[in-house]
From TrEMBL:
GO terms for cellular component: endoplasmic reticulum lumen. Its EC number is 1.14.11.2. It is an enzyme of class 1 (oxidoreductase). Its cofactor is L-ascorbate. Residues 1-19 form the signal peptide. This is procollagen-proline 4-dioxygenase. Residues 393-496 form the Fe2OG dioxygenase domain. Belongs to the P4HA family. GO terms for molecular function: iron ion binding; L-ascorbic acid binding; procollagen-proline 4-dioxygenase activity. Gene3D superfamilies: 6.10.140.1460, q2cbj1_9rhob like domain, Tetratricopeptide repeat domain. Catalyzes the post-translational formation of 4-hydroxyproline in -Xaa-Pro-Gly- sequences in collagens and other proteins. The lineage of its organism: Eukaryota, Metazoa, Ecdysozoa, Arthropoda, Hexapoda.
Amino acid sequence: MPKLLSSLAILYLLVLVRSHGKTKIPENNYAISIHDLGKLIDYEHYLLGILQNFSNALQQRVDAIEYYLNMTEYEEERKLPDDPFRAFRITRRLHSDYLNWMWLMEQQPWETLVKHITAIAPQMPTSKDIEEASSGLRLIQWTYSLPTAQMARGVLQSIHHNTSLDAMQCLTMARHMVNHKDFSRAKEWLMEGLKMHEADEENEFYYSQLGTPLADFYELFVRILDELGTRFLAMTELQLAIKNWPEEVSLQRAHSRLKMNIRIGKEPAKTEKKTQGAYRNCCSTECRPTAKLHCLYNTTASHFLRLAPLKMELLSLDPYVVLFHDVVSDQDILSIRNLAKGGLARAVTVTQDGNDKEDPARTTKGTWLVENSKLIQRLSQLSQDMTNFDVRDADPFQVLNYGIGGFYGTHFDFLEDTEMGHFSDRIATAVFYLSDVPQGGATTFPDLGLSVFPEKGAALLWYNLDHKGVGDNRTAHSACPTIVGSRWVMTKWINEREQLFRRPCLTSI
């Protein structure tokens, strides 16, 4: 059975390699949207079905061959035939049966299956997806100070999830850490992978066929030790690896590099000390800048609220930040998400020359709700009632879904681009939470020492401009990395042009 599994793995890898070489692979950006990751579940089930058919076809052949071997009683047949029946049987088999077995061995019943896999190869994750998924895990680990050993075993913030990483995935994370010069963390990931690999040593052939032989672990281990400055220990480990795998050319190259580094006394890599700042603290626990503020029923923002007041929690008065509870119904949330799912695209920034550019600090996909449906009209009226702003000049609603470790780097919502014609800056931002997030995903204001964790149906509102109409730098905010769950939000940017009589700019206060 292990050999059969290895054959299946080889078939899958060969198909992907061959297909990737012929087809231009599109950037599906799976890792930056949990919703889009759902597509991979369907693809995997499809592939597993193909591999199962391949396994069944091979197993039929194995069963037929084993039955034939037992039927011929080949161990007893080694003696010279002493009766005409045995002589006839062996003569007929050598004349007919073995020609048929040769024909069976030459057949390749998997060609049709290979074509099925090739057809969906362009939809498979790319190396970019692997890099972004690894970056997501790295950011989760750094932001929430998670021990490597616990992460590898599926323990996140003391909560044990029903999943874990294997040796190959730990090796991938170790390589990612090396690429980002975090050698101490790379060593931790590699050691976890080594423990898992050595505990499963009877399946070394399986790991080798999947491209992660034990020699690769030791080669990376030596490189990490070299970068950390423990080169004599690295040399000892490398010599042992070369003794075990003398045919590995990569180990010989590593040996030459290591000898050169020892001879020239190359400086070890410098490790940066990263302190636990307000950002990381408020991502891990809910922060409130003051305990003197309170909750109330808002009945004054609009006439409608006198009949249906909103539950409002004051978070900050300067700058003004409030959280409204239970403002969007579950039915409306479902409708919003259904509208958005078909148009999700990677979030980008606009450069000075007007081109779109991917931003590694924005691992999310989004779309604009521009249609003038009754749902959108009702949400716009809700925004106006909730904020007491005129939303006729506001931007359309933007719906975002975050990916693996999905986050939005610290930024301002105000623009202050005075070169734009007919410029109207964003006076306020409203963020509607369209899902609960079991772990992570807080909206945090580092300069205020304030964070709000997603609560389905709630809406967070803050003012971006001060009383003079100037951008308030204290409103710098970020979406902390999502640990568990799918973070859905809807943003409404309200512009200042129509607010002259609702919130006029004051030169003094």
